[in-house]
Design a protein that fits this description.
115 residues; alpha+beta
Length: 115
């Protein structure tokens, strides 16, 4: 799946969510946006909706600790800014469900064209 040379971000992030996000939440959210909306299917021309992202990848890309990444993810879920599901397509809203999962898939609750 090819990627854009730029990642379009919904104005909703800036207009609605930015004032309520901590630095670590913003970093984690931007990685989720990059890994989903930043990739486009060459046939359908639509961006990815979900992507598997490991905690190690979040740590590497954000410079945050594993604990900070976990806290940011939990907070973004509570704020209903992201959704997380496991490898069985079951929404993983609580930390126990996320810890038990082999793979976690992430998506934002807003898309490219939302305002």
């Amino acid at each position: 799946m090819p990627y854009y040379y730029e990642t379009r971000i919904s104005n909703m992030l800036f207009d609605t969510y930015l004032p309520q996000l901590s630095e670590s939440e913003l970093k984690v959210l931007l990685i989720i946006i990059r890994q989903t909306l930043g990739w486009v299917d060459p046939i359908s021309k639509k961006p990815k909706e979900w992507d598997w992202i490991s905690k190690v990848f979040f740590v590497k890309k954000t410079g945050l600790s594993k604990r900070s990444v976990g806290t940011a993810i939990a907070s973004l879920i509570l704020k209903k800014i992201i959704l997380v599901k496991n490898e069985h397509n079951i929404i993983a809203n609580n930390p126990v469900t996320r810890r038990r999962a082999t793979k976690l898939f992430y998506k934002t609750t807003f898309g490219i064209n939302q305002k």
